[in-house]
UniProtKB/TrEMBL annotation:
Pathway: Bacterial outer membrane biogenesis; LPS core biosynthesis. Keywords: Cell membrane, Lipopolysaccharide biosynthesis, Membrane, Transferase, Transmembrane, Transmembrane helix. It comes from Roseobacter cerasinus. Residues 43-214 form the 3-deoxy-D-manno-octulosonic-acid transferase N-terminal domain. It holds the Pfam family Glycos_transf_N. This is 3-deoxy-D-manno-octulosonic acid transferase. It catalyses: lipid IVA (E. coli) + CMP-3-deoxy-beta-D-manno-octulosonate = alpha-Kdo-(2->6)-lipid IVA (E. coli) + CMP + H(+). Gene3D superfamilies: 3-Deoxy-D-manno-octulosonic-acid transferase, N-terminal domain (3.40.50.11720), Glycogen Phosphorylase B (3.40.50.2000). GO terms for molecular function: Kdo transferase activity. The keyword Transmembrane helix applies. The chain crosses the membrane at residues 6-24. Belongs to the glycosyltransferase group 1 family. Glycosyltransferase 30 subfamily. One of its GO terms (biological process) is lipid A biosynthetic process.
Length: 432
């Protein structure tokens, strides 16, 4: 397929802009504690060898959620392809840290190369992937076309584009067709997105409905020693969790907790802002609300009489979920899109959410219908819902059982997706 003029213009622009973008990105990674050797991976300079043996399968994701969503898929494909090697790339320091903590066997993480000819040439020449699997909305034109030009089999999984992104691609049908033509298989999260990809000129015979990979991810890791310490510090006090909160949501959560203190004076709230660098801001909100608290990043545990534990660290979410059967999931009281409810259900907790869950709309419809999730809109509703689950063990158990059933229904899907990718990407010969 001939490249449209806009693609050539984009390529020319990257030649001019790449040095400036590289400088800014490397500087950002270095400030976040990434060693210089690793930060320069964005220039295509590999910091690890390509191992021999079977096929090398490259997974490319954008950031934390996308990266973590494919780890279970990599592990499953690794079981089915015992000789294969895996490479996962992402763009943020946070994703690199979390992936490193949970990385599957025979898998290497690297920072993704910039979408420019020099970095991509170095990257592809070193890694020589036999198959490339892109996640959600990672549609970088040069990365896709240069990878395809090497004869690499390619797939897009968990495909999801926002309405704004779809509109932008729709205004450029030529380049949309040119970019999407690289994929041998496009698996979307739902039927609506499958139709959207076809409307964007993806090859109709290569588009199929998959599932939301976040529903298939492994449970969040926990630290038994830390859990024992925190449980000892709590001394049996009841706990609820507000996780992945964004600006504007903490005030609602704190108002709900203040209300709950009247009927449940021993109740502890574990408050987990989505971005730990907002810790000081959230701490000030707690002070203004007149509530007492301890802060995880200061190395202290919840103390007697303190009403809130501010969990402002990365990579410990699984521990906090394990301490309560009641979790409010943020990113949902305002139009942010919501966060992954499956991680909550896997921790055997009931899900409470705001109404703005566009990123998981189909999932929440299913969970609400089964009773595994409850949607609230404001502080009084949140306080009332938490109180009901605290006081009614039977109601809480019903919601937990509904979550168990949902997870069981999903348990066989992962193997089916892995098998489909192996077949469509012609990796079958690596099975021995």
């Amino acid at each position: 397929m001939r490249a449209p003029p806009l693609y050539h213009l984009y390529v020319a622009a990257t030649v001019l802009l790449a040095p400036f973008v590289a400088w800014a990105q490397i500087r950002k990674l270095r400030k976040q504690g990434i060693p210089a050797l690793r930060a320069h991976e964005i220039m295509g300079n590999a910091s690890a060898p390509r191992r021999g043996g079977g096929a090398l399968i490259w997974f490319h994701a954008a950031s934390v959620g996308e990266s973590l969503s494919v780890l279970a898929l990599i592990a499953k494909m690794g079981e089915m392809l015992p000789r294969a090697q895996f490479l996962i790339t992402s763009g943020t320091a946070t994703s690199a840290k979390l992936v490193a903590d949970r990385i599957p066997p025979r898998t290497v993480h690297q920072f993704a190369p910039l979408d420019a000819r020099g970095p991509l040439t170095r990257f592809l020449s070193h890694w020589r992937p036999d198959a490339a699997i892109f996640v959600e909305s990672e549609l970088w034109p040069q990365m896709l076309r240069m990878t395809r030009a090497r004869g690499t089999a390619m797939a897009l999984v968990n495909a999801r584009l926002s309405a704004k992104s779809r509109a932008a691609w729709a205004r450029q049908p030529g380049i949309a067709r040119y970019v999407l033509d690289v994929f041998d298989l496009i698996l979307t999260q739902n039927d609506q997105m499958a139709q959207a990809m076809v409307d964007m000129h993806a090859p109709t015979d290569r588009v199929a409905r998959g599932t939301n990979l976040k529903s298939l991810s492994a449970p969040l890791p926990t630290d038994p020693a830390l859990l024992a310490q925190v449980r000892a510090a709590l001394k049996g006090r009841p706990v609820w969790v507000a996780a992945s909160t964004h600006p504007g949501e903490e005030a609602t959560v704190l108002a709900a907790h203040a209300t709950l203190q009247a009927s449940h004076p021993e109740l502890v709230l574990i408050l987990i802002p989505r971005h730990p660098d907002r810790s000081a801001e959230v701490a000030e909100l707690i002070r203004q609300a007149g509530l007492s608290f301890a802060t995880r990043s200061e190395g202290v545990l919840p103390r007697a009489g303190e009403q809130i534990y501010l969990a402002d660290t990365l990579g410990e979410l699984g521990n906090w979920y394990a301490l309560s059967e009641i979790v409010f999931l943020g990113g949902s009281l305002h139009p942010i899109g919501g966060h992954n409810p499956f991680e909550v259900v896997q921790a055997r907790a009931v899900v409470i959410s705001g109404p703005h869950v566009a990123s998981f709309a189909e999932t929440y419809d299913e969970m609400q219908a089964s009773g595994a999730a409850t949607v609230v809109e404001d502080a009084p509703m949140l306080a009332q819902t938490v109180a009901r689950f605290l006081d009614d063990a039977e109601l809480r158990d019903e919601a937990l059982r509904a979550g168990d059933v949902m997870l069981e229904d999903k348990s066989n899907v992962l193997g089916g997706i892995a098998s489909r990718l192996i077949r469509m990407l012609k990796l079958d010969e690596d099975i021995r």
